[in-house]
Specification:
about 220 residues, alpha+beta, two-stranded antiparallel sheet, about 25% strand
Length: about 220
């Protein structure tokens, strides 16, 4: 019986907490968005620096204004993840000239376990709890897919900018300098789904919708 108890404690020790889950997702959003910026050419290659993440060299922006903008958004997103009040984050790539949305990278966040005043020490749906190492291996595969996106996405032949949208529960308090905006939907889009990943509290499904160059 002693061996069983020790094994259970070790499993709980290695499991990811709600706070740890939120941090993992925020790091994924930051790395994923930066990878999209680089792969889709929103900023010049000189504006990026290789940073080791997930066993890969991830290209992260060195542009101070972009870093500040993302930090502000992701700090708030992390708070909503901890409160379990967020359902989606969207990165829209938009033409600077026409304001048309050319790509819509969508990250759906599903709550798979509720935090009820104490750490979750039960398996979700009878499934084995995932370690941080296992989760980061799943994220590595998604970053690789983002890197490979240039092989199937149309070339962005015009200057583009971006917008970040966050979908939350209706009752959440939103910062006063945040505004409702265009959902940046694409008419008759093509879709490519990326691999999902999950922690003990959240599941993230990723996809990109895009407009073909010959679409009107």
């Amino acid at each position: 019986m002693a061996a069983v108890k020790v094994g259970t404690k070790n499993a709980f020790k290695n499991a990811v907490s709600l706070k740890g889950s939120a941090k993992i997702i925020i790091e994924f959003f930051e790395c994923g968005i930066n990878s999209i910026f680089f792969q889709r050419g929103l900023y010049s290659a000189e504006d990026f620096l290789m940073v080791p993440k997930y066993g890969l060299n991830v290209l992260m922006t060195t542009n101070d204004s972009v870093k500040s903008y993302l930090k502000k958004i992701l700090t708030q997103v992390e708070a909503w993840l901890l409160d379990q009040k967020i359902s989606k984050l969207v990165l829209a790539i938009v033409s600077q000239d026409t304001r048309e949305t050319l790509e819509r990278w969508e990250f759906d966040v599903e709550i798979v376990a509720k935090q009820n005043g104490k750490e979750n020490t039960e398996n979700v749906g009878g499934k084995k709890e995932k370690s941080e190492k296992e989760i980061k291996q799943d994220i590595q595969a998604i970053i690789r897919q983002i890197t490979a996106s240039v092989t199937f996405l149309p070339t962005l032949e015009e200057e583009c900018t971006f917008n970040v949208l966050v979908y939350t529960d209706r009752e959440v308090e939103v910062p006063t300098d945040w505004n409702d905006c265009d959902p940046h939907l694409i008419k008759n889009p093509e879709f490519v789904r990326l691999r999902p990943f999950s922690t003990n509290y959240h599941k993230v499904d990723s996809m990109v919708a895009y407009r073909l160059n010959d679409d009107i």
